[in-house]
Amino acid sequence: MLPLRDSVPGRTIPYVTVGLIVANFLVWFWELRSPGVDVHVFRDGYYPCTLHGPCHLLPGFHGLPWYEGVFTGMFMHAGWAHILGNMLFLWIFGNNVEDALGHVGFFFWYLVAGVVAMAAQTVVTLEFAGVRSASIPNIGASGAIAGVLGAYFVLLPRARVLTLIFIFIRESIRRQEAVSRSSPT
Fold first, then answer.
1. 3-state helix, strand, coil in the chain (%, to 5)
2. What is the H or E stretch that residue 74 is in?
3. H/E stretch holding 171
4. Which of these, 44, 132, 141, 150, has the minimum number of CB atoms within 10 Å of its CB?
5. What are the angstrom distances between the C-alpha of 158 and each of 6, 7, 36?
């Protein structure tokens, strides 16, 4: 399911929303440059183990201090689908939250939501997943955008969102299941 638009027109120009989208894309284009996305992710992503070690990173890599990695990781993405999906959600929902909170309030809400999401992921990873999982970089704006979505649904509970639903995916899965049941194993 993908959102296409909402029913609440923006009242102001969403400077911060546009600025955050531009910043995310600038970081993405920087990631695409040499030496490539994977190296940038391993070098500049956020590692939960940097908060509470030990870290078992790939040879030649060391994690940024946690307070830097949280912010670099919040603007990095792993692929085109990752950044395009995140920025679509930010574009559709961010403008209305920015209207409600004001430009400065929205900017701080976005950053705090991203930090809180990284903190929550860190707690879960360190508590339940162990050192190896804590040594995997966390990246993406998803946590910050989840905070924007949460604010949107609290601030605008009656807003309607036009979405594109991918029915063919469910039908495709049904067909694959039918083929699996009918084929001899």
1. 65, 5, 30
2. helix 66-74
3. helix 167-182
4. 132
5. 11, 9, 43
Q: Do 64 and 44 form a contact (C-beta atoms < 8 A)?
A: yes
Do residues 40 and 114 touch, judged by C-beta distance below 8 A?
no
Backbone dihedral angles phi then psi of residue 167, each to the nearest 5 degrees: -70, -30
Single-letter amino acid, residue 50? T
CB atoms within 10 A of CB 33: 9
pTM across the whole model: 0.86
> How far is Cα of residue 123 from the mean position of the Cα atoms in its chain?
18
Find residue 6's DSSP bridge partners: 161
- DSSP lists the bridge partners of residue 164 as 2
SS3 call for 5: strand
Token pair for 3: 């959102």
Torsion of CA 53, 59, 60, 62, to 10 degrees: -10
Number of other residues whose CB lies within 10 A of the CB of residue 124 = 12
Q: pLDDT digit string (tens) for 88-132?
A: 999 999 999 999 999 999 999 999 999 999 999 999 999 999 889
What tokens were used for 165? 């639903």
User: What's the mean pLDDT in 44-61?
Assistant: 88
Please tell me which residue, 29 or 61, carries the higher pLDDT value: 29
Contact 145, 111 (CB under 8 A): no
Bridge partner list, 46: 138
